[in-house]
Amino acid sequence: MRKPKKLLNHPDAVAREQFEGFMAAANHLEPVGSHTAAIRKDFRSGKVAIVTGGGAGHEPMYGGYVGEGLADAVVVGDVFAAPAPDAIIETCLALNPDKGVIFVYGNYAGDNMNFDIAAELLEDDDVRSHTVRINDDVISAPQSNSVERRGIAGALYVLKVAGAAAEVYQEFDDVVAATEKALKHTASVGVALGPCAIPRNDTFNFEIADDEIEIGMGLHGEPGVGKSKLITADETVSQLMDKLYDELGLCTGDEVCVLVNNLGASTQMELLIANRAINNYLGDKGISVYDCLVGNYCTSLEMSGYSISLFKLDEQLKHLYDASCYSFALRK
């Protein structure tokens, strides 16, 4: 039976060592204490702070989106594990956030618990906070129970809007409203072709046959709608796009941004073929594509497959999306 193979040092040191490598490449950030956490060097008082985070293993999410016009700080946990509350608290306080903090992170039980604990304790230091849990994965729960949905690559759009709004708007509630609006206008769905493995494990997180795919599988191997036989790229994209089209209630004349996100091991060729099919699908529906991002934006170690995210624009969201930004993984 095939076993995972990664070029590492010690498996228990992966989260720390990848963070140190990230910091060596991100000279616009500074570390927070001994934590795998960082803040912007140029963060200024008098603006609402955007703080993000989650488990390692999804690089460049989340640290890759910390910088001018994006998040102001990140807190990273172990591989596929939530960051600790004390690390979140210390990171927030390092910003001296006099206008309050907006937490933006994926909707997973461990992250929810630890960020909520941190938010409660920050109240003792008179730090105002609001939480936006990314729940863009339309397969993971029905629309009627969207609060239970998982967060995947659509987090990129929410962080982009949140960061831009925090630069433009002075009022806490205005930044919250823009961030929440961005989340409501974002929908994602993925397809997996092959599994991933946590570095300390010698087996894969799940099994999938060579002639199978799974629509809607989560970033950690959570089940989707079930395995099916491998079909063509165009057929696969059509299935995914039908779900996103219905979810966002798209119609002729709408304008969207498209994100084709590599889950880790798919080729640029596959992503571009998917992007071709996505643009053809939207063109046939009379929907304009304002911008396309194709590449590694929210990965899952060596999982093979990709996710598609659509971001439905209006004038406010387009303005915030177009605002300049500078980070390790996204620059405009």
TrEMBL record:
Domain of life: Bacteria
SUPFAM superfamilies registered for this protein in UniProt: DAK1/DegV-like
Keywords recorded for this protein, A-Z: Kinase, Transferase
One Pfam family here: Dak1
Record's signal peptide: none
Domain DhaK: 10-330
One Gene Ontology cellular component: cytosol
A single GO molecular function term of this UniProt record: glycerone kinase activity
GO annotation terms (biological process): glycerol catabolic process
PROSITE patterns: DHAK
Protein name, entry field: Dihydroxyacetone kinase
